[in-house]
Fold this protein.
Amino acid sequence: MSAAGRNRPARFGTLLRARALRTLRRLWPDSVRARATVGATAVVAVALGTAALALLAILHANLSRNAERAAAQQADTVAQLAAQGRLPDLVPLAHGADFIQAVDADGRVVAASQNLAGKPPVADLRPADGTLRTTWSGGPVDDDHDQRLVAVTTQTPSGPLTIYAGTSLRDADAADEITKAALAVGLPLVLGTVAWATWWVAGRALRPVEAIRAEVADITEHRLHRRVPVPAAEDEIARLARTMNSTLDRLEEAGARQRQFIADASHELRSPITVLRTQLEVATAHPDPALWPDLVKDALEDTVRLQDLASDLLLLARLDAADPVKTEPLDLSELCRAGVAGRPADRIAVLTRLQPDITVTGNRSWLTRLLTNLLDNAQRHAEQQIRLTLRTHPEGTAVLEVLDDGPGIPDADRARVFERFTRLDDARSRDHGGTGLGLAIARDIAGHHGGTLTAESSERGALLVARLPLAGTRQGRSPGNG
């Protein structure tokens, strides 16, 4: 046979199994309620079926054992009479035996009960010692039930005799029939009750889930204030509802922040665009070459401000989207030293105290931007001094501190200064206030590197502290890998 011929039965079996699986999937109910009902009913059916079979087996065994014990007692009684030489030709039947017969060693019937009188030996069993038991289907006595036969050997004055005592298993069969009838009626009733109870309980349990689903389906971007109902029971569904409401809270908050961000960005963009347009209109209306240098200078400043604002907005969008960027082990001490040395002539020189050989894992461009934004913020507010300090903390973090001697940050505003487009009252001027995005960008960069950026108390001025995990100990959100 060729290889293709040998593989044909295997492929046929695989196709049959695949078809059977597809059929089972189509027949398996789709709803959780129906699956729970089918599963619970099937489990109960298997358990009750197993218990019913065990019950029938135990009941039949007990009744058969009782019948056998009664027949054995009768056989022993007849054997004692035979041993004493007092065995009558017709042996009376007592309770527990349906027939009795005594057979000698030559196979002749010596004595028997009335219903076996004149009949040949019922069996050819000769137990050498003790008692022999067996079960017949049918037997020497007309009976529709199985019969249990007990054979006992005894010594008599005329020689050995074998006593056969038998009893019908009608009681065991009757009990089996009654039990089977009861189970045939009771099992479907129990399974039906289990199926109905499971269907009802599953429906009650899933009703809050349906309410949650309906409410979530009705929530749109313009109706984020709505919340799903929370069941009174402290169960998994209640926890699901609370988690869903917490998610909706965050979505609503994110939507509000987005709308506020768009409004603030529109306002920030409109101001320089309006000023730039005014300058161009003035230059057009008054074509005086003597005014053009000042107009062009002012227009260039507004254009640079627009460019910086657009760059900040693009960076914020990238930070919000958590786009993957290339990361690498960086010597943060060297990065700070190069960042300070590469700055143009600042209004106030930056005094540095940098602990050497502090390595973090991150993106060079982003960490440089974090340092630049912190120093730019300090330059706008400092009066005579700016200090940049870098050290390590025993908890496995690099601590970067920027301290200026300006007016400082009020306690109530220490969290607000990191919000987007936030500028305190003394820094709102167009010339010195910036766009209000520098600290927000710096905080997001620190967060993307698994660190934090906070404003902390100081004796004078503002103290901004960035904490970044050292290389090998970084936790939190990663900026990704290129």
